[in-house]
Design brief:
The structure holds two protein chains of two kinds. By secondary structure, chain A is α/β, with parallel strands linked by helices. In chain A, about 65% of the residues lie in helices and about 10% in strands. In chain A, helix 2 runs parallel beside helix 15 and helix 10 runs antiparallel to helix 15. Chain B is α/β, with parallel strands linked by helices. The longest helix of chain B is centred in the middle third of the chain and has 16 residues. Classes of the chains: A alpha/beta, B alpha/beta. Chains A and B meet through helix 12 of A and strand 6 of B.
């Protein structure tokens, strides 16, 4: 028994000495739980997305429409935007005409238009318009569900007002008032209550239908009542971006995973650095007519070519297996692949130069790649994370790589629209290579 | 040919080389002998242009050697301490890569690769992955990988570490053949047997300083004694040790004493004393001093320490 304890103690001593094993087995899982936890409500807070920008243009003067806007503002999943910046830094209300250009400019991906005739005398029911850039399928489904939930939660009141308005148009104001009073008295006589109070509620459009929806879940989808509401509430949906994209989901999935695997592959290749250094291959090469710059440059070029190969293989597989359409965007995609590969190579070389051993590089790579993939949008939409993490995501390579691929394949962005993504990725690559070169020339990698 | 002038190199507070001056002529087989940490690898890496000295100058054929001057290093070939090859690639691929780095192409490269593989008896394994080679085969390939471009100077940094005696002998024979063909070889080692067998001139280095320099005979003749008596360091020989007095220098190395008689002290005197103490002659071994004795005399330590 004593021997068993001695050997167990030895294993723990080894674990304590082996930082890679320590990081991979303890730090990485803790990081992932920390990132993923809030998404599933594990931290005790609410789960699901938060602060997804939603533009709302309310063209209706009806108080019920404002109630709907207030309900959307109260929904923490949305960050409701109703104004935009005007001339001289002034703030002006959003108009319907602003929405499509702003969606294309990625100011927000979803917008709700409440038209002037929300409650019309011309027809029974409600009419709303949702504009969207559903580049992230999971997020898009979530937003649609939340929007429907919020709208249908307010439908009963809106519907009552719609009925009252239509009835007034047909019957005239006096006859409708008499009708409402008659109904109120019958209800009070039959079920009890104050007839005048009941009349006021009927006139305001409050028929108590909200209790019906609350009883049935009130989502408007799937239940009989929901189906009734969805027939009464007409929601026009306009996809602003990505209308022509075939296999949109596959496009996004392939892009996300391609970046993650590329990061893993190029980070692991940093181990080759240490192997070549430890075996003396670097010394042999550098003892010849090869400069350190050439050695470093060769690694960088190899990384980019390897990355291109891997990305193209993944996109080609996506094309063959899931119909990902990229042939029309080949030049843009190819250059985006170059930028992503350059940035990932720079990341791998940075790791190789800031760590002291292959094991340390591998441990740090695992930690960073998984963390960046989790909070950069490779696994789930960035909007599902707490606001703080959404800001952190914008500092990750994965985020800009995925957004860049989406801009090419989904938004079919123009050269000017792709430029910021190329700039950020190449900027990261350049910064990483500058640091890596500095470290290469100073660090013990050649000692 | 290769010249070091007052070369100093420090790592932090550790002075790895301390004002080393050394000239190695063409065609020499120069041995750099010293224990681990003596400064051999630092000297070799500066010679290879991998490191810059803090002060001093290293020149090859009159041209300054430095990491910033890759062209000067064309005349050098480096055999690193470890097997510096790509294990996943074949022997032929490895050689071609290292040849191409020196600008060799086409028929010239193919011919040179064939020649070198033949020379180290690896021609029939040319397409095998290096990782499947034995340690000795890898070491042989490691050496010829530094010879593709026909260097004038070959720097061998302890190239036989971990090699079995048979393979080591094959490596020695090949290096001797190269030297006979005119190649200047600089060979660092902490094995005095290697330096004794191979080197026409030896530099003994310790704590970053060249302590002695010369041919084997010159180094041995410089010793203040020409013979050495070795006997067990046990209680039976204590009276002998006490009576040797000023007869010479006595050093103790583990379980043995080494007695170096001073000039003029006859060995017959030593044996007479031993006989008087009843110590049988079989306890004593008389031998000519070795490089280890030279090192011991210079540093007071044995080389393997």
């Amino acid at each position: 028994m004593r021997n068993i304890f001695v050997l167990v103690g030895k294993d723990f001593a080894n674990l304590r000495r082996n930082r890679t094993a320590f990081i991979v087995s303890l730090v990485v899982p803790v990081m992932i739980i920390w990132i993923v936890g809030p998404i599933f409500g594990l931290s005790g807070s609410r789960s699901g997305p938060s602060g997804i920008p939603l533009a709302v243009v309310n063209q209706s003067g009806d108080p019920a429409a404002q109630t709907l806007v207030d309900a959307l503002k109260a929904e923490p999943s949305f960050g409701v935007i109703t104004t935009r910046e005007g001339p001289n830094h002034s703030t002006v209300p959003l108009t319907e005409a602003d929405l499509e250009p702003m969606i294309r400019d990625r100011k927000f991906a979803y917008a709700l238009v409440i038209p002037p005739d929300l409650v019309s005398t011309e027809r029974l029911g409600l009419h709303l318009t949702i504009l969207s850039d559903p580049r992230n399928n999971i997020e898009s489904q979530m937003v649609n569900g939340l929007l429907e939930k919020t709208i249908f939660s307010n439908v009963p009141q809106l519907l009552g007002r719609s009925l009252q308005t239509r009835a007034k148009a047909f019957l005239g104001s006096d006859r409708l008032t008499g009708f409402d009073r008659s109904i109120a008295e019958d209800v009070a006589g039959t079920f009890g209550g104050d007839a005048e109070a009941i009349r006021r509620r009927i006139e305001s459009g409050d028929f108590g239908l909200d209790r019906l929806t609350a009883h049935n879940g009130g989502t408007g989808g799937g239940t009989e009542d929901g189906d009734v509401f969805s027939r009464i509430v007409r929601v026009d949906r306009r996809q602003v971006v990505g209308k022509d994209v075939k296999s949109p989901q596959a496009t996004q999935v392939v892009a996300g995973y391609a970046v993650m695997f590329l990061l893993f592959a190029l980070s692991n290749s940093s181990a080759a650095f240490f192997e070549e250094k430890n075996t003396g291959v670097f010394q042999r090469i550098l003892a010849g007519p090869v400069s350190r710059g050439q050695l470093l440059g060769s690694r960088f070029v190899y990384g980019i070519l390897f990355g291109l190969m891997q990305l193209m293989a993944l996109f080609l597989a996506g094309r063959i297996l899931y119909g990902v359409d990229f042939f029309g965007r080949l030049p843009g995609l190819a250059f985006m692949c170059v930028c992503v590969a350059a940035a990932c190579t720079g990341f791998g070389m940075l790791l190789a130069t800031i760590t002291k051993s292959a094991q340390a590089a591998a441990g740090l790579a695992t930690l960073l790649v998984i963390t960046m993939s989790a909070c950069g949008g490779a696994w789930f939409p960035v909007s599902f994370m707490p606001p703080f993490m959404q800001h952190v995501a914008r500092f990750t390579l994965v985020y800009w790589s995925i957004e860049g691929f989406n801009e090419v394949l989904w938004a079919r962005g123009s050269f000017a629209e792709l430029l910021p993504f190329w700039g950020i990725l190449l900027g990261f690559a350049a910064a990483a290579m500058i640091v890596a070169t500095w470290r290469f020339n100073r660090s013990a990698i050649f000692e | 040919m290769l010249s070091f002038r007052e070369v100093t190199k420090s790592y932090g507070t550790l002075r790895a080389l301390d004002r080393v001056s050394l000239d190695i002529g063409p065609g020499e087989f120069f041995g750099l002998l010293g224990p681990n940490g003596a400064g051999k690898s630092t000297l070799m890496s500066i010679a290879a242009g991998l490191r810059s000295p803090n002060s001093g100058l290293v020149t090859l054929g009159g041209a300054v050697l430095s990491p910033q001057e890759p062209a000067t290093r064309r005349s050098l070939g480096l055999v690193p301490q470890h097997v510096a090859l790509y294990p996943e690639l074949s022997a032929e691929q490895n050689l071609k890569i290292f040849g191409q780095l020196y600008g060799m192409r086409g028929a010239e490269l193919r011919s040179r690769v064939d020649e070198l593989l033949e020379a180290v008896h690896l021609a029939d394994r040319r397409r095998d992955q290096v990782k499947n080679f034995s340690g000795g085969m890898q070491r042989r390939l490691n050496i010829v990988s530094a010879l593709l471009h026909r260097p004038k100077v070959l720097l061998c940094d302890e190239p036989t570490v971990g090699v079995d005696p048979q393979s080591r002998n094959a490596i020695f024979e090949y290096l001797e053949q190269l030297n006979r063909e005119g190649l200047t070889v600089i060979y660092s080692t902490h094995y005095m047997e290697e330096a004794t067998r191979l080197c026409s001139r030896i530099g003994i280095i310790d704590h970053g300083r060249i302590l002695a320099l010369g041919s084997l005979d010159e180094l041995l003749n410089a010793l203040p004694f020409q013979e050495e008596v070795r006997f067990p360091a046990d209680p039976a020989t204590v009276p002998l040790v006490e009576r040797l007095g000023g007869g010479g220098e006595l050093l103790t190395e583990g379980e043995f004493h080494r007695f170096h008689p001073r000039t003029g002290y006859p060995l017959s005197e030593f044996y007479r004393t031993a006989e008087e103490l009843g110590l049988p002659p079989r306890l004593f071994t008389v031998q000519r001093p070795t490089l280890e004795g030279v090192f011991l005399n210079l540093t007071g330590r044995v080389l393997r320490d």
